[in-house]
Design a protein that fits this description.
heterodimer; A: 792 residues; extended; B: 5-stranded antiparallel sheet; 3-stranded antiparallel sheet; elongated; binds adenosine-5'-diphosphate; binds magnesium ion
């Protein structure tokens, strides 16, 4: 950290997370715009009131925004390398200090409840002080706590900082460009219409067609301008003289009428061409957008999916992209035509008579002003609608997969109510926009009617003064009629543009999200994998909850490790790190001595076979599901894998054997059957590393036995990590690891661990008791499987 | 291909009896295709009445030398398998499901009730498998080969 921390220019958004907080925003405005600075430099507002000791170095700070009675009041909390102090302003604007020097047993702890966080300072005897803050400050507070522990340990200052988020200071995993904390606080700026220009990225491949479409549009609009223009000579050269008794010149009439017809025909042809071409292009842009967002989504880390709701993502990718597509193909096209038409009309009008033109254009500024007025509200309105719609999809995506639970607990009515509620939100959001919108359109119409009226008055006056001919007035009125209908339809663009902008924002939200399990730029190559895994001081957090606290582990190639521990002790998380679903916050995972973050994710995962407690099958046939990881597998390979997984016989009993469909999520199969298919799936890719996360926990003992033999086939010759609830399933393990609260507390063979009478022994004891009760229930188990079979 | 290491015969009850090389005898043997749809002639299991696989035939053509066994298996399969091929659709009661279809098949004229559109399973771009309300399955191996009228009717359900 630089010595000039205090002098450094202040960069407030450093305190992030806080963008949403009114208190912060207020401060933000008062501050000069920022150049680079470290999170440790104090906010400018406080620099004058805080004086530091000589050579004192700031480690971290936060602005606590509530006082002891939970009223908004700011207090600065600073950790330096010499002390912890806070500084509040008294009502007389005098700084009030509290200060604690370093002594043993000093510790900070924090918790939150109902949106209010509490930070407490203790020593061995008592609580020394308590600060309260809104959760918007949470990130900053965590930073202070971190700085505080740093102060306690007096680590060398430059060791840190490299791995922390440049924005909020939260530690980052080495390769991640995205900070979990910042992501949570999120950017809640309303979508701007400019976001639509980002769609250009998807339009670029169709540049040529777009240009052609535009030329066609120009031509067709121009062609449609011919007809009203012909009114002028028709009136002045044919009608008016005819009225005065001059015989009608048939040739002239035929010429003009022929021109009218030809222009209509031309406009029709060109219009068809342009509409078709541009609709074609926009449909492709929409499809590309959808594919791109889906592809991007597939590459995002599990963490992203953990924080998102299925329905919401579905709505974004399906309906929002569709909305953009409709916008591009229909509304934008109309809009462009309208603009062209209006410009051309204006030009022609000016050419006929500038004064007439000016009068005609009179309502334009009013309409522009109106558009400006409602734009903001429409945009936020449409974003709300988008969210409400996602909520509707969410309920669907939630309820349909969980339908068995819904029915089992007879909660159909409640789910219906939930859906109704979501739907009602959608209605309310729509109503709000419609109220505004419905007013807008008639107002534009009214303005245009008034405009027409003015033109009539002005025109009649001009004709009476003989400034213009009747033909001119009629032609002008014909133009103006079009002009105003165009204006009316054009004003509609406001709403659809805002709608599309809101949709585009929600899609770009996905597209802009950088995976925090990034692909390395120059992936290292691993031609042959031995399967040696090593974890070096691996630390992992979900948000701010530390789940793995420095795991050191080395697994030899071909070794089988049994991982046991209470539920919630971090076993699955450890496995997630090894699979690289997440990256370690600190430390590293190595495969054959190479950091897995330097390997290509896809290449790396190819070496891993994963069997989960609740296996997921895709809609498709049994054979397709088994071959999921190796789509090119031959039928013989598939059967061999199924045999080894003890799935072959039950598959043959299915109505279409390997060609049977398993239904969505494998509904048509029992848990044990699904499990065996997923084992076959893992077997087929012949992985060097095999991970079994409670693979047998959800099935009855008899099925478990069958699966167990299947697993024994699977384990041979592979580095295996098996997590199991029933310790008996780990009898083949070379080594057992006992985890507790994110740490490995014991390690060794079964007998050794039993002899040790530690954590493993207690787990074993507890299970031995359970096994007794299981024996009692065995006849019942048999009965069930017997009926199972007969029903097949 | 090597000759099968088992013997198959039909007993007095019309059931298949399998005698393996190591002398085991299994009665009530049923031949089951592993891939009845995608590869009906590859991969056949002989299953005993408990549902355990007792022999495996990699391919029916592997039995070429043993015409007797092959004939036994094929007739048994034919007795068990009933998947009429639809030649023509005459009439469908409605385009919404459930819908009653009147059809000609390679096994004669019939009609069936289609319960829902999901029961029409696209096997490839041009072939279909339709399951009726009672679980009977009808094949359309090549949609393009149907006549115009049938195609138009079918198209409404795809
Ligand atoms: N996606 C997640 N987000 C936040 N916390 C999680 C997530 N997954 C697991 N945890 C938490 O991490 C801890 C360890 O979980 P896990 O590794 O699944 O335990 P185990 O597999 O040993 O039962 C638990 O306290 C759990 O609440
Ligand atoms: Mg787990």
């Amino acid at each position: 950290m630089p010595k000039c921390a205090l002098a450094a220019k202040f960069f407030y958004s450093a305190a992030v997370g806080a963008k949403a907080s009114p208190v912060m925003t207020q401060t933000l405005e008062a501050l000069p715009s920022a150049t680079a600075a470290l999170p440790a430099s104090l906010p400018a507002a406080w620099q004058t009131s805080v004086s530091l000791l000589p050579n004192e170095k700031i480690l971290g700070w936060a602005v606590v925004d509530l006082d002891a009675r939970l009223r908004f009041a700011q207090e600065l909390l600073v950790v330096t390398d010499q002390r912890l102090f806070s500084c509040a302003l008294s009502p007389e604007n005098k700084p009030v200090y509290r200060e604690w020097g370093r002594h043993d047993g000093l510790r900070l702890s924090h918790y939150d409840h109902a949106g209010v966080g509490t930070l407490e300072l203790f020593d061995d005897h008592a609580r020394l002080h308590r600060w309260r803050y809104t959760l918007a400050q949470d990130v900053a507070i965590l930073r202070v706590i971190q700085a505080f522990s740093q102060w306690q340990e007096i680590r060398s200052a430059d060791e840190e900082s490299a791995t922390s988020c440049p924005v909020c200071g939260t530690p980052l995993s080495t390769d991640s460009d995205e900070c979990t904390n910042c992501a949570v606080s999120g950017n809640i700026a309303p979508p701007s219409t400019w976001i639509l220009f980002r769609l250009w990225r998807f339009a670029r491949p169709y540049k040529g067609s777009l240009l052609l479409g535009f030329v066609l549009m120009l031509a067709s609009t121009a062609a449609s301008m011919v007809a009203p223009y012909l009114i002028m000579p028709l009136t002045d050269e044919v009608l008016v003289p005819a009225e005065k008794g001059v015989p009608v010149d048939v040739g002239l009439v035929a010429l003009y009428l022929g021109g009218l017809f030809a222009s209509a025909l031309l406009a029709w042809g060109l219009g068809w061409g342009k509409t078709y071409l541009l609709a074609l292009v926009s449909e492709r842009i929409g499809a590309d957008l959808r594919t791109a967002s889906f592809e991007h989504l597939m590459h995002l880390s599990l963490e992203y999916f953990g924080g998102k709701r299925t329905g919401d993502l579905m709505a974004r990718i399906s309906s929002e992209s569709d909305r953009i597509c409709v916008f591009l193909s229909l509304h934008l096209l109309d809009f462009a035509t309208d603009v062209l038409m209006i410009t051309m009309t204006a030009v022609v009008l000016f050419w006929i008579n500038p004064w007439l033109a000016l009068v005609t254009l009179l309502p334009l500024p009013f309409i522009a002003w109106m558009i400006f007025l409602v734009r903001e509200r429409l945009r936020t309105g449409f974003e709300k609608i988008g969210r409400a719609w996602s909520e509707v999809t969410n309920v669907l995506a939630d309820t349909i997969p969980g339908i068995r639970v819904v029915k089992a607990f007879a909660q159909e009515a409640r789910e219906t109510k939930r859906f109704q509620e979501a739907n009602r939100h959608n209605l309310v959001a729509n109503d709000r926009v419609n109220r505004l919108w419905s007013l807008f359109s008639p107002t534009v119409s009214l303005l245009t009617e008034i405009g027409l009226l003015v033109v009539w008055i002005f025109g009649i006056w001009q004709v009476s003064q003989s400034h213009i001919s009747t033909g001119m007035l009629l032609a002008a009125l014909a133009y103006i009629g079009r002009f105003y209908t165009r204006l009316d339809s054009m004003s509609r663009i406001v709403s659809v543009t805002q709608k599309a902008a809101a949709g585009a924002k929600r899609i770009f939200d996905i597209l802009d999200h950088v995976s925090n399990v990034p692909e390395p730029a120059n992936p290292a190559q691993l031609p042959t994998v031995r399967g040696q895994i090593e974890l070096r001081h691996a630390v992992f957090r979900y948000g701010n909850q530390t789940v793995l606290r420095g795991i050191n582990l080395s697994i030899a190639p071909g070794e089988m490790i049994g991982l046991v521990g209470h539920s919630g002790s971090g076993k699955s998380t450890l496995v997630n790190l090894i699979c690289r679903f997440y990256d370690a916050a600190e430390g590293a995972v190595l495969l054959d001595g190479v950091d897995i973050r330097t390997l290509s994710v896809v290449d790396y995962r190819r070496h891993i076979g994963l069997v989960l407690q609740d296996p997921f099958l895709f809609f498709g046939t049994v054979a397709e599901n088994i071959a999921y990881g190796r789509p090119g597998a031959t039928r013989e390979d598939i059967i061999a894998a199924a045999r080894a997984a003890h799935a072959h016989e039950f598959i043959l009993r299915l109505p279409h054997g390997y060609d049977s469909r398993v239904g969505e999520r494998g509904q048509g199969l029992s848990g044990g059957e699904r499990q065996r298919i997923s084992i076959a799936r893992a077997l087929l890719i012949d992985p060097k590393i095999l991970i079994l996360d409670e693979a047998t926990s959800s099935v009855d003992t008899e099925t478990e036995k069958e699966i167990q033999t299947a697993l024994d086939n699977l384990v041979r010759g592979r580095t295996t990590i098996a997590i199991a609830h029933r310790l008996s399933t780990l009898h083949k393990a070379d080594r057992l690891l006992v985890m507790d609260r994110g740490q490995i507390v014991e390690e060794g063979a079964h007998e050794m661990l039993i002899a040790r009478r530690g954590a493993y022994f207690r787990l074993y004891e507890a299970q031995a008791r359970r096994v007794d009760t299981e024996f009692v229930s065995t006849p019942w188990n048999n009965a069930v499987s017997a009926t199972d079979r007969s029903s097949k | 291909m090597k000759p099968p290491d088992f013997q198959l015969s039909r007993n007095a009850f019309g059931r298949l009896v399998l005698t393996t090389r190591d002398g085991h005898v299994y009665e009530n043997i049923v031949p089951v295709r592993a891939f009845p749809i995608s590869a009906p002639n590859d991969g056949l299991a002989l299953i005993d009445q408990e549902g355990h696989e007792r022999a495996w035939i990699g391919s029916l053509s592997a039995l070429e030398s043993d015409t007797e066994t092959r004939a036994l298996i094929e007739t048994t399969l034919a007795e068990r398998e009933f998947t009429p091929r639809i030649l023509r659709l005459h009439h469908v009661s409605t385009f919404a499901t459930p819908s009653t279809w009147r059809i000609s098949t390679d096994r004669g004229e019939t009609s069936f009730v289609l319960k829902s559109e999901e029961d029409i399973r696209l096997l490839s771009a041009s072939s279909l498998l339709i399951t009726d309300r009672d679980g009977v399955q009808y094949r359309i191996p090549n949609i393009a080969a149907l006549d115009k009228h049938s195609k138009r009717l079918l198209d409404r359900f795809l």
